[in-house]
Design brief:
The chain is of the alpha+beta class and 287 residues long. The protein has helices at 3-9, 33-46, 58-65, 148-153, 157-163, 222-236; strands at residues 11-13, 20-22, 48-51, 93-96, 99-100, 103-104, 113-116, 128-135, 143-147, 167-173, 188-194, 196-198, 205-207, 214-217, 242-245, 252-256, 260-264, 274-280. It has six helices and 18 strands. Strands 1-2-3-16-8-18-4 form a seven-stranded mixed β-sheet, covered by helices on one side. The protein has a four-stranded antiparallel β-sheet with strand order 7-17-9-15. Strands 11-10-14 form a three-stranded antiparallel β-sheet. A hairpin with a 6-residue loop joins strand 12 and strand 13. Helix 1 crosses helix 2. The longest helix has 15 residues, at 222-236.
Amino acid sequence: MNIATKTRLDVVPLSKHIGAEIRGIDLRDKPDDETVKAIYQAWLDHLVIIFPEQKLSQEDLVRVTGYFGELGELGRPAKYFPKGYSKILPGIMMISNIRENGEPIGALPDGEMMFHHDMLHAEIPHNATLLYSMEVPTYGGDTLFASGYAAYESLDPALRTKLAGRNAIHHYNYGSTQRGDDRGVAAYGESVHPIFRTHDETGRKAIYVNRLMTVGIVDMPKEESDPLLEAIFDHSERPEFVYTHSWRVGDLLVWDNRCSMHARTDFPSDQRRLMLRTTVKGTERPF
């Protein structure tokens, strides 16, 4: 990375363990290869990167997604798409509480959402998620990001040893924001992945279970696995591992699902919220 690229990017860390803002770049101006490499490295280093004050078209969002890998497909089956999806490009998910004739035009319309890793319920989960804000409420609807690296590295050694090499079971009903709520659709996804994941690019280990989707540990009775998982969830969500993002219109966030999880705070149901989301395909099964 050359000095000019470094200066042009201006990467500003936002918390000790996770999150950085990249200032002084307009993503409509197609950055050169050196800048794209520097952006990618900042993402690996900080897990979540924020580009403020963007004015992106849907085509721009798809192009920028390509800087991080291949555009991911939507997990939810097409027959369960909200009706707003007819106005957006393939591969983009609309997240919105805006309603037409009483029906939300987008997915995940209301309320808070438990900590989760996007697409953890897939056989090969997506590496990255990009979320771009077009309309935001005056308060609430913040996104909390937690570092799986920091949580793993500070986990009680006895617990880390006990669960090393073990797998967890994940289940998700599309549309659910709390485990066991009635907001999901009939479609769901299930997967089995390591409790501690090794990041395929950085080589670092991260906790890879979450409160929304993880339902058990393979070959362990529920009465034994539930308290262990609860202890890991509580540890992973500790405030010192978390960066909280308060959205502004024009923010584009990119996060690494291999080593971070995120949650959403509640927001006023009578205020409009509209975001566009893409994902980047996973490159291999978690190990």
